[in-house]
Amino acid sequence: MAVVLVLVVVLQKKWFSAFTISSPFRLAVIGSGPAGFYTAYRVLKDHQNTLIDMYEALPVPFGLVRYGVAPDHPEVKNVQNRFEEVAQDSRYTFIGNVKYGEDLTLKDLKSQYDAIVFSYGAGQEKSLGVRNENEPIKNICSARAFVGWYNGLPQYRDLELDLTCTDTAVVIGQGNVALDVGRILLTSVVELSKTDITEYALEALRKSQIRNVIIVGRRGPLQVSFTAKELREMMNLPNTKFHTDSELVKNELFTNVDIISKDRPLKRLMQILEKGMSNSIGYKSWTLKFLRSPDEFIAHGNNDPFRAKYVRAVNFHINRLEGPLEKRVAVPTGKMEELETGLVLKSVGYRSIPLEGLPFDEDKGIVPNYKGKILDSDSNEQPGLYVAGWLKRGPQGVIATTMYDAFETAEVIVSDIRQNKPMISKDTINTAKQGSKAIIPILHQRGIRTISYEDWKKIEEKENEAGKAKHKPREKFARVEDVMHVLDT
Ligand SMILES: Cc1cc2nc3c(=O)[nH]c(=O)nc-3n(C[C@H](O)[C@H](O)[C@H](O)COP(=O)(O)OP(=O)(O)OC[C@H]3O[C@@H](n4cnc5c(N)ncnc54)[C@H](O)[C@@H]3O)c2cc1C
Ligand SMILES: NC(=O)c1ccc[n+]([C@@H]2O[C@H](COP(=O)([O-])OP(=O)(O)OC[C@H]3O[C@@H](n4cnc5c(N)ncnc54)[C@H](OP(=O)(O)O)[C@@H]3O)[C@@H](O)[C@H]2O)c1
């Protein structure tokens, strides 16, 4: 009898350990931009026994690769090929049209996953906090909205902008997004029509009267945050002359020559800037204006029947610079300058938002973390909760930066698994976690129509077909209803 009992216990133990060894590690990823995909790629590569479910608020994947990267930069979108490889892995599942925090809660996810990676990016824009910013003045919007509009982001499909009422646009901020929007406004529609820019944006740009784009920064030429390739593209725009405060640029280059010579990217940037200053032929123009901080947006008065409520000008503080070169700050001189314009694009950066159940550092605009492991308000590690991408380190950096950052998070996850660190504990019923198998029916019960990767491929095929007819790489469906319609036909 005793022998039989021992045998039963041994067998049970063996079965149990075999079960636990073969039981896969279930990871949920929230957001399907580069951070989500690169984290998934790395975890799948380094930990075979993993199943990943990626939840995306939009019906379609790829985040800013689809809705941010400029249409005239198609080569950047090649990263989608790597994401495609991840999606083809049998251990990966895409679940689109599911918004974490609205359709899905932390409690839902905790009940079905061992760990969760939050990589939902930076879904808002920074505000400037200047006078009249929140007044309903027409033709003022964020660069985020403008970029989303021309790239087919459903939220901005119906953005109201009139590009026919003015010949001058002011862009506030001097980052790469500012150059993207300036370049799109000045590029010929013949060139743009070969890209995947949306047809309605192309139509509006065809009628556009904008000939001059003024890109305004609060600090000086050495503090711009755009990069050499993007500046060169602006300098090479056909029929477009370049203006700037040449005296200021020359003076800054002269006084800081030693520092510039030791900083290769800065040196390259300044060479392009200096060379571009001789670029003075063209019926269009773009300008880099330095040392200006916006103070107020000014609208046309009601006495102008055609332009009432449209922006007429921006009033700027004129600044001087203070502090050591690496920490230069803009200080108002007390002088002001008004710039006449009929279109204002605010391009001062993006912002992440706090979502249900997650700690959030309002000052930094990130989920607090150590190398991607989420920390609570007392800096304690949260078992099984991770963060990657712009939500982890703020809205800074190109796709390559986001990739390395996502790899760091993935390495921490895999190392935590190997070290048997605590993950999300089982619920009280202690049933095996099922991942999306259990979550998708719950979402359907809540009336949410989930989109699979196969659905996306069908949508993509239709977009490519529609693009072919117009000699474009694709024509994006910019309304969620249109995407759903494709799946119903
Ligand atoms: C306008 C613009 C142009 C750029 N151009 C370039 C370029 O040319 N080259 C380059 O290298 N880099 C470029 N970048 C930078 C690059 O896009 C970022 O480094 C990268 O996209 C950040 O990745 P992410 O995954 O953190 O965020 P995102 O790409 O924003 O992905 C976040 C994803 O999460 C989803 N999401 C949001 N909320 C939820 C929710 N509640 N539930 C579920 N899902 C959610 C979003 O829909 C999105 O799909 C550009 C950035 C911008 C803003
Ligand atoms: N082609 C590409 O590779 C590409 C294209 C687009 C975007 N991106 C990347 O995406 C990231 C985000 O780009 P971004 O252009 O949105 O952000 P960014 O690089 O941070 O630039 C923001 C700009 O806004 C200014 N600014 C911020 N707050 C301001 C305020 N209150 N008043 C006036 N000016 C203010 C900043 O000036 P200060 O420096 O003075 O703060 C800076 O000039 C960057 O890393 C960028 O390189 C890459």
From TrEMBL:
<keyword id="KW-0274">FAD</keyword>
<dbReference type="GO" id="GO:0016491">
    <property type="term" value="F:oxidoreductase activity"/>
</dbReference>
<keyword id="KW-0732">Signal</keyword>
<feature type="binding site">
    <location>
        <begin position="174"/>
        <end position="177"/>
    </location>
    <ligand>
        <name>NADP(+)</name>
    </ligand>
</feature>
<feature type="binding site">
    <location>
        <position position="56"/>
    </location>
    <ligand>
        <name>FAD</name>
    </ligand>
</feature>
<keyword id="KW-0496">Mitochondrion</keyword>
<comment type="similarity">
    <text>Belongs to the ferredoxin--NADP reductase type 1 family.</text>
</comment>
<keyword id="KW-0285">Flavoprotein</keyword>
<feature type="binding site">
    <location>
        <position position="397"/>
    </location>
    <ligand>
        <name>NADP(+)</name>
    </ligand>
</feature>
<dbReference type="GO" id="GO:0005739">
    <property type="term" value="C:mitochondrion"/>
</dbReference>
<feature type="signal peptide">
    <location>
        <begin position="1"/>
        <end position="18"/>
    </location>
</feature>
<keyword id="KW-0521">NADP</keyword>
<feature type="binding site">
    <location>
        <begin position="397"/>
        <end position="399"/>
    </location>
    <ligand>
        <name>FAD</name>
    </ligand>
</feature>
<feature type="binding site">
    <location>
        <position position="35"/>
    </location>
    <ligand>
        <name>FAD</name>
    </ligand>
</feature>
<feature type="binding site">
    <location>
        <position position="390"/>
    </location>
    <ligand>
        <name>FAD</name>
    </ligand>
</feature>
<protein>
    <recommendedName>
        <fullName>NADPH:adrenodoxin oxidoreductase, mitochondrial</fullName>
        <ecNumber>1.18.1.6</ecNumber>
    </recommendedName>
</protein>
<feature type="binding site">
    <location>
        <position position="230"/>
    </location>
    <ligand>
        <name>NADP(+)</name>
    </ligand>
</feature>
<dbReference type="InterPro" id="IPR036188">
    <property type="entry name" value="FAD/NAD-bd_sf"/>
</dbReference>
<dbReference type="InterPro" id="IPR055275">
    <property type="entry name" value="Ferredox_Rdtase"/>
</dbReference>
<feature type="binding site">
    <location>
        <position position="64"/>
    </location>
    <ligand>
        <name>FAD</name>
    </ligand>
</feature>
<dbReference type="InterPro" id="IPR021163">
    <property type="entry name" value="Ferredox_Rdtase_adrenod"/>
</dbReference>
<feature type="binding site">
    <location>
        <begin position="218"/>
        <end position="219"/>
    </location>
    <ligand>
        <name>NADP(+)</name>
    </ligand>
</feature>
<keyword id="KW-0560">Oxidoreductase</keyword>
